[in-house]
Amino acid sequence: MSSSYPxxxxxxxxxxxxxxxxxxxxxxxxxxxxxxxxxxxxxxxSKQEKLDQxxxxxxxxxxxxxxxxxxxxxxxxxxxxxxxxxxxxxxxAAGDGKIDHIxxxxxxxxxxxxxxxxxxxxxxxxxxxxxLAPLIMAxxxxxxxxxxxxxxxTLTGGVRSHRPALGWAIMSAWGSGIEGMARGLAMDLAPMRxxxxxxxxxxxxxxxxxxxxxxxxxxxTFKDGTLVGNVGKPEDLAEAYLHCMKDHFLTGTVxxxxxxxxxx
Length: 264
Description:
Number of helices: 7
Number of strands: 7
Oligomer: single chain
Strand order of the largest sheet: 3-2-1-4-5-6-7
């Protein structure tokens, strides 16, 4: 590391960071933060138009880093194409070098189904993007990543794994599985590091499908369930992912950012 750069904020300088789910929400904010730290950033999403818009926004916000951001479409929702889609994504992200960090924030809209109404197909569908995709990604990633302590994979869980609500049995199970996956991968992929960020309620574009009245009621419920009296912002959560990338002694760990919801 050159002594001409600050010791701490330069940890990601020139690092190659792949962010799955980087076109919106938490993932987009992680992309912003990584660019501010001097990283080269590849973002991925399932739709080309949305990907192009996200890249344009990042390049507009950070004109001096226009050449440091690029993207690749990757559909994670179809299990039969999942491995080949991820292989292509990793090849594009690595380019002629190696990926230093992978951040997985991709997630589809959550459908809460009471366990008494669950079907086998519905249960499997709940884990396609959030569980199966990161597991297959981890299978493929080592051949495209720098294999040392400075490299990392950061997955995304959720507070409902620890504080389930009524009707959340299925998604809580998948979320708990992600945490177990990360601990197992930390062993299997060492010295590369693997961790999980577990967010509480975070106001992202996923809430856009609700009416204004529904959203207001929902956000107030979330606020009341925290110690800080507020809902998380994706800009705040981005700091947790930065920590997972920059702390070279952190692995097999769940980093929770939930406004105190777990302990209230």
